[in-house]
Amino acid sequence: MAVTIKDVAKKANVAPSTVSRVISDNPRISDATKKRVRKAMKELGYHPNVNARNLAIRSSQAIGVIMPSSAETSLQNPFFPEVLRGIGSMALETEYSLYVSTGGDETQSFEEVKRMVFGNRVDGIILLYSRRDDPIMNFLIKEEFPFVVVGKPYKKESQITYVDNDNILASKKITEHLISLGHKRIAYLGGTTDLVVTMDRLDGYKQALEAANIPINDKFIIHDEFLRSSGRKAVEKLFALNEPPTAIVVADDLMSLGVMNMLEELGIECPEDVSITSFNNLYLSELTRPSLTTVDIQIYNLGIQSAKALIERLKSKTEPVKRVIVPFEIKYRNSTKKIDQ
Amino acid sequence: MAVTIKDVAKKANVAPSTVSRVISDNPRISDATKKRVRKAMKELGYHPNVNARNLAIRSSQAIGVIMPSSAETSLQNPFFPEVLRGIGSMALETEYSLYVSTGGDETQSFEEVKRMVFGNRVDGIILLYSRRDDPIMNFLIKEEFPFVVVGKPYKKESQITYVDNDNILASKKITEHLISLGHKRIAYLGGTTDLVVTMDRLDGYKQALEAANIPINDKFIIHDEFLRSSGRKAVEKLFALNEPPTAIVVADDLMSLGVMNMLEELGIECPEDVSITSFNNLYLSELTRPSLTTVDIQIYNLGIQSAKALIERLKSKTEPVKRVIVPFEIKYRNSTKKIDQ
Q1: Which residues form the HTH lacI-type domain (chains A, B) (predicted)?
Q2: Cβ contact (<8 Å) for A51 and B102?
Q3: Closest CB to A119 among B49, B91, B289
C-alpha cells in the first residue's frame, strides 16, 4: 500500500491540510512543524505526489517540443535530433524535462498541444517549424501560453519570440555562388510550400536570379517533404525536361542525399554534369561523394537559443519579445563546378 | 481569468465535487447530470485540468524514455533518434506522449526517473541501455514500476521484459567473416565496459577467435564512448603498436566513421591495409568510402517492440514478462578484404 498524506498527518500529529502546506512550502507553517512533518514523511517513505504539488505551484518543470510531422517522419531528418540536442543541453542546465510530440497530422499535434497546455503538463512550448496559418500557433497566441518558434512566424507578429537564420540572404548567397560559376539553368528544390523556411529560401533564390537577369522557370521549382525520397523524385522530374538544369539549389541535406543517389543511378555526374548546393551542414554532407557545398545553419545553436529564450520568458513574465538571428556560413566543398562554356 | 470547477458547478447547479466526478466519469453520477455538467463545461470553455484528472484516474498517458547519457551526448549517435522514431510511431498509434530524459550523469538521470515515477508523470519507462548494477533499474524493480529495457539486463532477472538482438552471436559471426578472409591480428573496439552490449559483443569476438585457435591479445581490445572521436583515438593507439592489427571489429557505426577518418589521415588504406566491420547499419554506413560491412540490428524495430511490450504491460497487469530477440543481418559491403598472404 502506498503511503498517503493521511498517514503522514497521523504520524506527525497534524491535519492532512498541514502536510499539504508543508509540501508546497507554505510560509504560514512554522519551521518546527515543517521539520516534524518532513521527518514523518521520510520515516514513512512518503514522496509527495508531484501532480498534487504542481496544482499548488502550477509548474511542471517541463518544456513541450512540437515537431512538424510525426516523430516517425521528422526524426528521419537529422535536423531534429540535432536541434533536440541543443534544447536538451539547455533543459539539463536549467532542470527542465522534455515532452516531445509524436502527432502525425496537424489535428493530432493540435490535440497533443491542447493536452500539454490545459493539462499543465508543460510550462512552455517550442515549435520546431513555422507554417502559414498554423492553428497551433494561433491557439497558443489566443491562450497567451509561453512559446518560442524555431523559424520565422508567417505573420510578422511582433509579439512572437523566434529563433531563425536569415534564410533569404543565405539562399541568395548560395544561388549567387552558382551564378558566379556560370550557371543559368538553376533549379530550386524546397520543402512543402506551407513552411515559411521553404518560401524564404525560394525568395532568396529568386532574388539572386532576378539580380542577374536570369528568367525564372516554373518547371525548375519543385516542392516536397524534406526527405531523401523527395530528392530522388525531383531528379527524375527535372531530368525528364527537354532542357534540364545544370545546377540545383537544394533546401535540405537529406534531400540532397536523395538527389545524389538518383543522379548516380541515372549516370549523371556531380559536379561534372550538374552542380548541387545544399542547406543545413548535417554531418552527412561531408560524407557524400562529392562532399556537399552547403549552408551551415548551426542547428545545435538554434536549439540552445530557442530553449534559452523560452526559459527566460518562463522565469520572468516581463521578459521582452525577442528575435534571435543565428548566423549562417557557407561551407564550400566539392559538389559545384564552373560550367563549361 | 481561467474558468474553474466552481464556475462550472454554479452554472450547472451542482456541487463542485459532482463536477469532479463527471470529469473522472464516475458511474455513480446519473447520465442526466453528466450531460448538464458537460454542457456547462462546454459553454464556459472549461477544460478539466489534466493533472487533477490524473490524480483521479492515475494515468499520465505518457512514456518515459531514458537515454544512457545526456541528450546532448546521446543524440550525437543516430542510434537514439532511430530508436525514438520506432517508439514514437507506436506511441502515436496508442495515444501516448513521450517524456525524454535529458540527464547528464547517472545521478541526474536517477533524479529524473524519481520525478517521473513519484510524480505520476509517466505510466511506464523504457531504458535505452543496459548497464551493470544500474541503480535506476534496481529502483524500478523495487518500486514495481512498469519498465522495459532495450538491451539485455545484466543480472538474468527473470522478471524483466527486454528487447535485444543476439549480440554475442552477431559479433561471433562478423568476426568469423574476418577470420575466413585470412585475418589473425583482429582488434576489437567497443563501448564502455559497464554497458552489457559492449561485453556481449566482446564475448562473441572472443568466442570466434578461440574457436579458430587465435590467441587473444589484450592490446587489441579498446573500450570508449560510442562516439566518432573514440574511433579516432583508438586508431592512434592501435597503429602505434609494433604489430598493428589487420582488421578491426568495431561495435558501432559512428565509431567506425571516426576510425575511417583517422586511417585516412594516417595514410592507411581501408580495406587494402586494414579491414573494418561495424555494428548498427545506420544510413551513414552506406555513405562512407568504402561503404561499411556492418550488422543490421534493426534499430527502428527495437523501438517499436520495446514500446509495444511496455504498452501491453500497462494495459494488463497480468501480461507475462517477455524476452524479445530482434533478428540481425550482416550487410556485406566494401570495408573488408582477403588478407595478402
Answers
A1: 3-57
A2: no
A3: B49
Task: Write out pLDDT tens, residues B108-151.
Answer: 889 889 988 887 889 999 999 999 889 999 999 999 999 999 99
Classify A167-297 by CATH class.
Answer: alpha beta
**CATH code reported for the domain at B62-165+299-327:** 3.40.50.2300
Chain A neighbors of B78, CB-CB under 8 A: 78, 81
pLDDT digits (tens, 9 = 90+) for A118-147: 878 899 999 999 998 899 999 999 999 999
Tell me how close the Cα of A293 comes to any Cα of chain B, in angstroms.
16
pLDDT of residue A54: 45
Please give the CATH number for the structural domain made up of A62-165+299-328: 3.40.50.2300
Put simply, the answer to whether A72 touches B88 (Cβ < 8 Å) is yes
CA distance A337 to chain B (A): 22
CATH of A1-38, one of 3.40.1670.10, 1.10.260.40, 3.50.50.60, 3.40.718.10: 1.10.260.40
Tens-digit pLDDT profile for residues A14-25: 888 888 788 767
- Least trusted range by pLDDT, from A75-79, A167-171, A181-185: A75-79
Query: CA–CA separation, B276 vs B187, rounded Å?
Result: 10
ipTM of the complex: 0.78
| Rounded to 5°, angle at Cα A71 from A129 and B48 | 80
Contact B261/A at CB under 8 A: no
User: Is the minimum CB–CB distance between B4 and chain A shorter than 8 Å?
Assistant: no
For residue A217, the model assigns a pLDDT of: 97
Indicate the residue of B50, B62, B119 with minimum beta-carbon distance to A49. B119
- Provide the shortest C-alpha distance from residue B287 to chain A (in Å): 6
Superfamily of domain B167-298: Response regulator (3.40.50.2300)
Residue B306 has which C-alpha cell?
520495446
Helix (H, G, I), strand (E, B) or coil at A322: coil
| A118 closest CB neighbour out of B50, B54, B92 | B50
Q: Is pLDDT larger for residue B321 or for residue B104?
A: B321
Residues of A in contact with B257 (CB under 8 A): 287
**CA of B116 to nearest chain A CA: how many angstroms apart?**
9
A85 and chain B in contact, CB less than 8 A: yes
Answer whether A108 sits within 8 Å of B92, measured CB to CB.
yes
